[in-house]
Design goal:
binds pyridoxal-5'-phosphate; four-stranded parallel sheet; four-stranded mixed sheet; alpha/beta; 15 strands; 14% strand
Length: 370
């Protein structure tokens, strides 16, 4: 059975939703408005209702969402943006693209999210924003981070919620927890399209307006450019796919949470494998089901032989990446980021995974860690 284990099963999801996805795509093919067609606003309205955020603006990708968010708050060369080095590169990439400086703060070893206790020490007069990342599908400590930002003159807080769409935090939704929330609809994300896509969320009218203009080359109206922008729209077909997937999203989120709980239960008998800690006041949608192990490379090799697909999110923290070493600033020690980067590995996770498959995965993991 191991041969058929999928890391993420997009085929099972398509089989389940085929009728509505096909119908939604056909509708776009029929009306032919491939850019800014009616599905774009329809999706934005649905996502505003889902998150209770006043504004949702769809954009070309999660990376573009972060870039446009930083542009909307007016980040310029030399500004400092506080974030974590233990994230997908896009979080820091957009900072560097604007000539700003990523300032890396360490993570908590048990959640792998930024440690709010270390943020104060990283703030300087140049700090222009804080980007907590809700890694692996669990929201970062947003209330603590917002409070720090407020104490320092209302520094904008941009949640990188690329991996956490659907997650709850103290009864509120990810993406609507700070100045701006950004998410990704990359196919493997909790809410994925069939290409690239993303969205920006805010309750601030002026920021929403800036994001809308920046998304389309900084134009206030057609061919009148009041600011520097990008070609950052999400296309109508991708919006149509997400609209179809939204029909089953609540079910998928609860299946993800259940699958996560099943893994946590099964892994109790393998004490050398440390899963992520999930805080009591939030849900984790398990964008990845990531655990920490010793001798990771040997364990990965054994799992490969056993037919269990795995991935490493992420093997090298960003302050160790050649492209970022020279341009970042390190605040304090990044010991936890380095330690988790050396030990993390992700196991198969998707809403369609069943108990038998998870048992087979955990059996193989138990054998591999020996
Ligand atoms: C934490 C994080 N931020 C940003 C992104 C970028 O999203 P996208 O791939 O849609 O550009 C990703 C995607 O993997 C991510 O995991």
């Amino acid at each position: 059975m191991n041969q058929s284990i999928e890391f993420i099963d997009l085929k099972a999801q398509y089989a389940d939703l085929k009728k509505s996805i096909d119908a939604r795509i056909q509708c776009v093919l029929d009306h032919g408005q491939y850019i800014m067609g009616p599905e774009v606003r329809e999706l934005e309205e649905r996502l505003e209702a889902y998150t209770a955020a006043k504004h949702c603006i769809t954009v070309a990708s999660g990376t573009e969402a972060l870039l446009i968010a930083l542009m909307a708050i007016g980040v310029k060369a030399g500004d400092e943006i506080i974030t974590t080095p233990f994230t997908f590169v896009a979080t820091a990439e957009v900072i560097a693209l604007l000539g700003a400086v990523p300032v890396f703060v360490d993570v908590q070893s048990d959640t792998c999210n930024i440690d709010p206790a270390l943020i104060d020490a990283a703030i300087t007069p140049k700090t222009r924003a804080i980007i907590p990342v809700s890694l692996y599908g669990q929201v970062a400590d947003m209330d603590e981070i917002n409070a720090i930002a407020a104490r320092h003159g209302n520094i904008p807080v941009i949640e990188d919620a690329a991996q956490s769409f659907g997650a709850d935090y103290k009864g509120r939704k990810t993406c609507n927890l700070s100045t701006i929330g950004c998410t990704s609809f990359f196919p493997s994300k909790p809410l994925g399209c069939y290409g690239d896509g993303g969205a920006v969320f805010t309750n601030n009218d002026a920021l929403a307006n800036a994001v809308r203009e920046i998304r389309v080359h900084g134009q206030e109206r057609r061919y009148f450019h009041t600011r520097i922008g990008v070609g950052g729209r999400m296309d109508t077909l991708q919006c149509a796919v997400v609209l179809a997937k939204l029909e089953r999203f609540d079910w998928e989120v609860s299946e993800r949470i259940l699958a996560g709980e099943r893994y946590l239960g099964l892994l109790k008998r393998v004490p050398t494998v440390q899963p992520l800690a999930v805080r009591a006041d939030r849900t984790c949608v398990w964008g990845q089901f990531t655990v920490r192990v010793d001798n990771r490379e040997a364990v990965l090799e054994k799992l490969k032989t056993a037919g269990i697909p795995t991935a490493v999110h992420y093997p090298v923290p960003l302050h160790r990446q050649p492209a970022y070493q020279a341009l970042c600033r390190i605040s304090g020690s990044l010991r936890q980021s380095e330690a988790v980067a050396a030990r993390v590995m992700s196991l198969p996770m998707h809403p369609y995974i069943d108990l038998d498959t998870q048992k087979a995965v955990v059996d193989a993991v138990a054998m591999a860690v020996g």
